[in-house]
Amino acid sequence: MNQCRLLLFDLDGTLLRSDKTISQKTLKVLRECRDKGILIGVSTSRSEQNALSFIEELQPDVTIASGGALVKYNGEYIYKAEFSAEETRQMIAVSREICGVDCEITIDTIDFHYWNYKIDPKKQDQSWGDSVYTDFGDFNESSLKMCVEIFNECKAESLREELRDCDCIRFSDGHWYKFTKKTATKENAILEISAVCGISTEEMAAFGDDYADIGMLSLCGKGIAMGNAIDEVKEKADVVIGSNDEDGIAEYLRSEFLVDGNCKQSEEFEVDGGRQMAITVNIYYSGVNGNAKKFAEEMVLSGIVSDIRAEEGNLRYEYFFPMEDEETVLLIDSWKDQHSIDVHHASPMMAKIIELREKYDLHMKIERYVSDENGVPVTDAAFVRE
């Protein structure tokens, strides 16, 4: 993989031990990686509310919660994939029709985790955040994720078919199935992070153990499966390490990143002979029905592009249209240094860009390059006509 700039961890079965704690050894190694400039991220199917104790302990730069339906960067929401209140009510009704009126259901909203539990979940898992009990009889809130406990595989398949517009994944440690918006997956959440942070997926390493982690392990530059992971995850991973109860993560990070220097500060690979080197990010926006071009046109006409070009440190911000792909637009986005990019990402401008991107339902592919201060090699100059 390329230089590692972001580590992403699933929680249950991965970063958490079986007793639902993070070992002190792992916490120490994560601090050492962070001290060397690498970002730390959590990517969990838990709601944000049910992961608060770990989020407070880790203080992650990136948080992906509710299986990808909610994404935070530096404490700010950058992506939400919500069902409307009416859609949520319909999903609950269909679940009860197929699986029985007494089936257990959980609903994640941005602020709460609702559950018609038979046994208080905190009696079984003290790490579980506060769940609000409800019978869902008059539930009237938009939601990020629904989970249903289904013991009959035929009923599970029937519900999956009825809710075919949802992304559905089963958790291997029980009989729970999660339903989110079709686009709300961990891997799509990572693409959102990539677009905002300017970090390519090749510069990320992801750790996981269950079905919901397969996509992100395949997407990132290095996919790492825990020793306790299900076989399907191990088959897709680049590396299989020790289990969550054996400090597998700490041992791997220390040997692969800290010892040989792969986990260096971002400035170190952007400096040549003491000089800061310009950074260029290529972003490919893809959509349907000409939406990528409409997005670029609105970015220009609204004045957003002009405002970005006027920002301190911006060297170039231009759109190009590939001849062989009418549904894709290429943005070439160049900055003086990483600090300039970080200031841009923290500015109100990003909220406007994200809003337009959601409006036109675009997906992104990111490439990141550092300028070569030596210019064009002599061996290539003969092929350049000025």
Search tags:
6-stranded mixed β-sheet; alpha/beta; single chain; globular; 8-stranded mixed β-sheet; 386 residues
Which runs of at least 5 residues are low in confidence (pLDDT < 50)? 260-275
Largest sheet: 8 strands, mixed
Major sheet strand order: 5-4-3-2-1-12-13-14
Name the overall outline: globular
Distance between the termini: 36 Å
Please tally the β strands and state the result.
Answer: 20
Approximately how much beta-strand content do the residues carry? 15-25%
How many DSSP helices? 15
Describe the structure.
It is a single chain. By secondary structure, this protein is an alpha/beta fold. The chain has helices at residues 11-15, 24-35, 52-58, 85-99, 121-124, 153-162, 186-197, 214-219, 231-236, 248-258, 291-301, 304-309, 338-345, 349-359, 378-381, and strands spanning 6-9, 39-43, 62-65, 70-73, 76-80, 105-108, 113-115, 132-133, 145-149, 166-170, 176-181, 204-208, 222-225, 239-240, 271-272, 275-276, 279-286, 314-320, 328-335, 363-370. The protein is globular, with a radius of gyration of 22 Å. It has an 8-stranded mixed sheet with strand order 5-4-3-2-1-12-13-14. The protein contains 15 helices and 20 strands. It starts with 5 loop residues before the first strand and ends in a 5-residue tail after the last helix. Helix 2 packs parallel to helix 10 and helix 4 runs antiparallel to helix 6 (153-162).
